[in-house]
Specification:
With about 210 residues, the chain is an alpha+beta fold. The protein has a domain of about 90 residues. The chain is about 15% helix and about 45% strand. Strands 1, 2, 3, 4, 5, 6, 8, 10, 11 and 12 form a ten-stranded antiparallel beta sheet that branches.
Length: about 210
Amino acid sequence: MKPVINSFLLLLPFFLSIAANRECYMCSGRNSVTCQQEIVNCTKGDKCVIISEEYKYNKTFFSVYKGCSRGLPCNQRIHGKVNDNLTLTYKIRCCDTDLCNVQFFEKPIPKKPTGYMCPSFLAQGIVEKSETKKKVQCPEKTDECFSYSGTIEKPDGELSNYTIRGCMSPAECKLNIFRMVGLRVHLSKYYECRYPEEALIDEKKKME
């Protein structure tokens, strides 16, 4: 009986660490690579997370978020691309010990495009018809084609209506466009993701 008790005592800290809520640093730095952090207790099963976001539209904005994972896909690079002048990339990094998300912004490393083509469209304002002959090559082969129309607030606070089409990571399509850090969506009139072959066939039919 004694060896069993000794084994239990040795494993007790491990079981307590699983049962306990994870302590993580939390803060949000919009249009900033740092933020004023505090310590929070996350929900059981959550990990600590750091999200580094790079948004480029004429100029480049960096934002960072630290906190609890809350169902986010861990250790992934997620992106959206309309053209070479309008891109969004963010890196989600998770760790699984107390206060492990001590670092701040990590610049997402750009990738050479290897994916399929999607229709590319950008207009300021809510546009009902966004047919286009322009295309953009997606960063990865698993990317989907997205269409969005609504109100967006850039990291510097500028608020405008946009209609955009391009490529997006499937993880972002599932999460939806509202989960970003520096870029904020106030109103979404239309938002859809489709597989590239479906989007291009549909676009061809519209242009005929």
